[in-house]
Amino acid sequence: MTASSPVAPAPDAPASDDAELERAVGEIISELSTSFALSRTRWHRLIEELVPDLKGVNLVVLHAVMHKGPVTATELSTALDIDKATLSRQIAKLRDCDMVKAEPSPEDGRVVHLSITDEARQHLEEAKGQWAKTHQERFAGWTLDELETLLGGLRRFNAATE
């Protein structure tokens, strides 16, 4: 199967193609799973090199605060499906490492909003730069056409989930 081969059958595709399509989708799932696992591991290593005290769940919470913040602990708990006690420990660790700051809500002083600190943003930007470099290295030797084909396929795949 080439990078430009279709994965969805044409409306009039013979039934014999169904098994081959099912096999191809299974292989794609396997490759995506491997890619996600390797990417997550590499990203965590990059962050851990910059802030050695951060590990595992700390990084998941930091990432969520970065993308959702300012956010409340309750919103994070729901979004990440983490119980409040576990989340509270993670937030405390992130605050101790000066990665997350907590500020009272201007509307309701009882509510605390979490956001990443400037130091966290700096570390994340540095990690992103290293991340981009490793991807550039992984794509070395790919043609523009191959990259555009992959990009088009990923966009089509991601659009189907919206």
From TrEMBL:
PROSITE patterns registered for this protein in UniProt: HTH_MARR_2
The organism's place on the tree of life at top rank: Bacteria
A GO BP annotation: response to stress
Gene Ontology molecular function: DNA-binding transcription factor activity
Domain (HTH marR-type): residue spans on this chain: 18-159
Pfam families (UniProt xref): MarR_2 (PF12802)
PANTHER family: MARR-FAMILY TRANSCRIPTIONAL REGULATOR, TRANSCRIPTIONAL REGULATOR, MARR FAMILY
Protein name: MarR family transcriptional regulator
Native organism taxonomy: Bacteria, Bacillati, Actinomycetota, Actinomycetes, Propionibacteriales
